[in-house]
Amino acid sequence: MPEEIEIRLLLDAIYLRYHYDFRFYSQASIKRRLAAAKQHLNQDTLSGLQEKVLHDPQMFSRLLQFLTVGVSDMFRDPSFFRVFREQVVPELRTYPSIRVWIAGCSSGEELYSFAISLREEGLLERTTLYATDINPEALRKAEQGLYPIERLRAFTENHQLSGAKCSLSEHYTAAYGSAVFDRSLRKNVVFSDHSLATDSVFAEVQLVSCRNVLIYFDRSLQNRALGLMKDALCRRGFLGLGAKESLMFSEHGACFRDFVGNERWFQRC
Questions:
Q1: Which residues contact 242 (CB under 8 A, 6 or more apart)?
Q2: How far is it, in rounded angstroms, from Cα 134 to Cα 139?
Q3: Which of 22, 62, 188, 223 has its CA 20 to 30 A from that of 33?
């Protein structure tokens, strides 16, 4: 199919020109995103888009916003965070210092969910959080901690259902139609560009959260990403995945045990 050839050539060109590797993402997902990008960027063909991307870094920056997923909520799947508070946190308390990796942090909702939970459980001061993503624009938004005020209702409901110790409003200031989360929440956060497709392990951690990222990878890239997480985790460290993600078919599955499997919490053996 000509379109499949165009997709392959475009992804190869992106990798060779910008060192971003989307070649092993789910083809169905990539096809949908490129179709949307082509329409919004006023390109008739993917070959035309490829020519623009090769010669115009600004065009690639615009395309990158379509190729990366930026949809999330704070305390998404509140029962996941309730398990974190009630069953994971007691084990984290046994460490003198804690390191948490939020892989694919996007615009920061997951990061702030963990930071707020850790603060409410009295562990934030001795925790370093690594927030990584391949999208510089998403990382910039995450570092700002600024969200439209209309999103706060859902954030607040999820926060309460997660077992909150106080009101979410204690963690942000609202003004001019936006809410900015406390600077202190990101005092111990390291924001960094990191690709699960091409980069390596950068730290030993007690917890990795990589939720709703693996579903956009093909099987080989899922295995690569899970291998990085396995290597980053200390023994008895925790891995949190998205509601539709599993270790069942991974070559690294035997390195983990179900901790609370129905909530996608796993523990490194």
A1: 211, 212, 213, 214, 215, 264
A2: 8
A3: 223
- CATH number, domain of 97, equals 3.40.50.150
Report percent pLDDT > 70 for the chain. 99
**What's the number of domains the chain is made of?**
2
Judge if 61 and 82 occupy the same domain.
no
Q: What single-letter amino acid sits at 262?
A: N
Q: Is 122 left (phi over 0), alpha (psi -120 to 50) or beta?
A: left
How many alpha carbons lie under 13 Å from residue 147 in its C-beta half-sphere?
Answer: 23
Whether residue 115 sits in one domain with residue 18: no
The mean pLDDT value for 112-128 works out to: 98
Q: Are residues 232 and 181 in the same domain?
A: yes
Q: Could you tell me if 157 and 180 lie in one domain? A: yes
**pLDDT tens-digit profile of 150-163?**
999 999 999 999 99
Three-state SS at 60: helix
Whether residue 140 sits in one domain with residue 48: no
Single-letter amino acid, residue 179: A
DSSP letter, residue 245: -
The residue among 106, 190, 108 whose CA lies nearest residue 144 is: 108
Q: What is the DSSP letter of 96?
A: S
Its sign, for the CA torsion 77, 78, 81, 82, is negative
Residue 247 in domain = yes
Please, what is the end-to-end C-alpha distance for the chain in angstroms?
Answer: 45
Its pTM stands at: 0.90
